Amino acid sequence: MTIGEFNSNFRSDLTELYSEEEVSSLFKIVLEELLSFDITKFYLKPDYVLTNIELEKIKKFTNELKRGKPFQYIVGETRFYGYKFYVNDSVLIPRVETEALVDWVLRENKQSKTTVIDFCTGSGCIAVTMKMKRKKWNIFALENSKKAIELAKRNSSRYYVNINYIHADIFSWNKYDEIDIIISNPPYVVESQKKFMKVNVLNFEPENSIFVADENPLIFYKRIFDISKLKLKAGGLIYFEINPKFKNPLISLSKKYKFSNYELKKDIFKRNRYIKFQK
Ligand SMILES: C[S@@+](CC[C@H](N)C(=O)[O-])C[C@H]1O[C@@H](n2cnc3c(N)ncnc32)[C@H](O)[C@@H]1O
To answer: What is the pLDDT of residue 16?
Structure first.
C-alpha cells in the first residue's frame, strides 16, 4: 500500500468519529510520530510504498483510534505549554485551556522565593511547568491516585525538576506548611453534563479526574478554601480553573470565606474559565 492510499483509507475509516480537521491532524501525527515522516515528504512522495513493519504500526494505531481511544494515550504523550508530557489512562490528558491558567500565574508572579501547591496534580503538567519556569519556587503537588503520582514523577524526571509530591486525599490531608500560592484544576464537571461529552473522553479518561456530583459541584473548591483559611499566607493567592456554569455560586462561597477580591478570566472560547482570589 502507498502512503497516498493509506491517507484515503485513514480518512474514510475515521470520518464517523472525527471532524475533517481532526483527521488531518491525526494523519500528521501518524506520519511524524509513527513513521518519522515529514508532511512535506508525504506531499512530495505520495507513491512511497509502506513497509510491512510500517503498515503493522499504523494499522494498530488506526484500530485504537476507531475504538475512540484518544491519540495521546496511544502515543503515550501530549504537549502542554510547549513541553512534552507522558500520559496514560490513569491521568486526565492536559488540556489547552489549562495552559492559560499556568500562564496567568507565571505572568503575575515573578518573585523568587515562593511556596506553591498544585492541588489535584494528575500528570503533574501544572507543577512541572511552573518549576521549569520558576526554578527557585518550592512546589508541592497533591494527588490521590498512586498511578497518577507515579506518572507525574516520570514527568518531573524527564525535565530534571524537583517537585514535592504528596500522595493523599485532599479531603483528609492536613499536614501543610504556609503557602504563598495555590493553583488547582480540580474535577468540576457535574454528572448531568456527561450527556454533552464525547465518547473518547467518557470511555477512556478517568472518571474521578473529571466528575463531581450535581448535589455538590463545588466540593473541591470548598475544601481548598478550608485549607486556605488555615495555611494560605495573608495576601496569598488562589488560582482556579472552573466550570463556567458555577461561577456565581463559587463567588458567593468565597464571600463566606471572607475573600473580598476576585478576578475572572475567559478561555479561548470566551467562557469564564479561570478565577483568582486573594486572601
Ligand atoms: C481535572 S484533573 C486535573 C489534572 C491536572 N492538574 C491537569 O490540569 O491536567 C483532577 C485530578 O484530581 C485528582 N483527584 C480526584 N479526587 C481527588 C482527591 N479526593 N484528592 C486528591 N486528588 C484527587 C484526580 O485523580 C485528577 O488527577
So the answer is: 83
Contact 170, 144 (CB under 8 A): yes
What is the predicted pLDDT for the residue at 31?
Answer: 86
pTM (predicted TM-score): 0.93
Q: Is the CB of 187 under 6 A from ligand 1?
A: yes
CA 144 to chain centroid: 16
Residue labelled with grid coordinates 512522495: 45
Contact 232, 176 (CB under 8 A): no
Indicate if ligand 1 lies below 6 Å from the C-beta of 243: no
CATH topology of domain 77-278: Rossmann fold (3.40.50)
CB of 124 shorter than 6 A to ligand 1? no
Q: How confident is the model at residue 64 (pLDDT cuts 50, 70, 90)?
A: very high
105 C-alpha to center of ligand 1: Å?
19
Dihedral pair phi/psi, residue 86, rounded to 5°: -70, 140
Domain ranges of the chain: 3-67, 77-278
Determine the pLDDT at residue 18.
Answer: 85
CA of 91, closest atom in ligand 1? 27
C-beta atoms surrounding 238 within 10 Å: 25
Q: What separation in angstroms does the CA of 61 have from each of 4, 93, 202? A: 17, 18, 20
Q: Which residues contact 176 (CB under 8 A, 6 or more apart)?
A: 117, 140, 227, 231
Q: What is the C-alpha separation between 60 and 63, in angstroms, rounded?
A: 5
Nearest to 218 by CA among 181, 186, 256: 186
Q: Quick one: which of 183, 98, 82 has its CA closest to 139?
A: 183
Tell how many helices (H) and how many strands (E) occur in the chain: 12, 11
Which three three-digit cell numbers place residue 134? Answer: 520558576
